[in-house]
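During the second half of the funding period, the structural biology subgroup turned its attention to how the target accommodates small molecules. The most pressing case was heme C, which had performed well in the primary screen but for which no bound structure existed. We therefore specified the complex as follows and requested a full 3D prediction, including the ligand pose.
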Amino acid sequence: MPVRLKVLAAAAFVGLLMAPTALMLSAHSDGDPDGDPIEGRKIFLRDNCYSCHGARAEGNMCPNLRNDPPDESDVEHAVREGKETGMPPFPDLTDRDVRDLAAYFETLGTANEPTFTHWWEPGVPTR
Ligand code: HEC
């Protein structure tokens, strides 16, 4: 095989090896189905979840969500149906919002927990 073809073949082979890696790396970027904790924190503040659950979801008049963070189905139920014990339903929240909220609750108490309060600032915050 001429040298140039060999180089091409080698490049194609490396490309084949790299493609799945690139796909795996991109799976957790923006728009992934796992939800975004930053967006979740914004919704938590914007929709006044914090007024009952506390600014850090530490519980205030209502359950502390930090000790035993709710998973996606807990959030889905609470947000869609509300709770007899005093939580109203939030019919305007989308499935995406529910995933973002669940992703946010997952970070509670971890180093990745976003703690910003100025959710309306464009571009910032990132934490
Ligand atoms: C008016 C007060 C109030 C507001 C506002 C409120 N909640 Fe609640 N929430 C409650 C109460 C009370 C409960 C506990 C119900 C129980 O345990 O019986 C609860 C329970 C929950 C649970 C269930 C916890 C579990 O372990 O199942 C989740 C999740 C939750 N809230 C999320 C939210 C989110 C997200 C928002 C904002 C979109 C929000 N809440 C807004 C009062 C509130």
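Two results from this model are relevant to the next phase. DSSP finds five helices and no strands in the chain. Residues 47-49, 51-53, 62-63, 70, 74-75, 78-79, 83, 85-88, 90, 101 surround heme C (CB under 6 Å).
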